[in-house]
Design brief:
Blueprint (H helix, E strand, L loop, with lengths): L11 H10 L7 H12 L6 H9 L3 H10 L11 E6 L2 H5 L2 H12 L11 E6 L11 E3 L2 E3 L4 H13 L4
Parallel strand pairs: 1-2
Antiparallel strand pairs: 1-3, 3-4
Bound molecules: FE2/S2 (inorganic) cluster.
The site of FE2/S2 (inorganic) cluster has 11 residues, from helix 5.
Family: Belongs to the complex I 24 kDa subunit family.
Cofactor: [2Fe-2S] cluster
Organism: Albimonas pacifica
């Protein structure tokens, strides 16, 4: 039962409402997280304690599910999505060094969004193994990717008007 004396938290009211819609059923945790992400665009950090309270689960349990599944976002999506392949062929062609270089240039880790609005996501094969290492910028496939080529593609995508 939520504590009415506690000040409202960002994302908490949406979490409460969605938990109630699922009858505060702990077995519905994944559905609740999906519904919350659909409603808010991501799962706000302040929703975690609220969900744990409503479902009578530990915060660590909710956080564990949230971080285990790559589909869940804990921050809003950036303007541009960059997918970096970590599949075997790409690994053999230097994907990890490429990922490190791109992340350093953007100032964000895999799974995060950079200050300039690039969400960097790992993927595990883009079907472009012959041209490894492969990447995708807003759906546009890039083979034989280098940090310089990705920088150029990202800067071009960021300069396009918002969709
Ligand atoms: S392993 Fe990277 S595109 Fe297939």
């Amino acid at each position: 039962m939520p504590n009415p004396a506690r000040p409202p938290l960002e994302g908490a009211s949406a979490a409460r409402e969605i938990c109630a819609r699922h009858g505060d059923d702990p077995a519905a945790l994944i559905e609740i997280l999906h519904d919350l992400q659909e409603a808010e665009g991501h799962v706000p950090p302040d929703a975690v304690p609220e969900i744990a309270l409503a479902l009578n689960l530990g915060r660590a349990e909710v956080h564990g599910v949230l971080t285990f599944y790559h589909d869940f976002r804990q921050a809003p999506e950036g303007r541009v999505e960059l997918q970096l392949c970590r599949g075997e062929s790409c690994q053999a062609m230097g994907a990890e060094a490429l990922i490190a270089a791109v992340c350093a240039r953007r100032g964000a880790a895999l799974g995060e969004t950079s200050a300039d609005g690039v969400t960097i996501k790992p993927v595990y094969c883009l079907g472009n193994c012959a041209l490894a290492p492969a990447a995708r910028v807003d759906g546009r496939l890039i083979g034989r990717a280098s940090a310089e080529r990705l920088d150029a593609a990202l800067d071009a995508a960021l300069s396009e008007p918002a969709r």
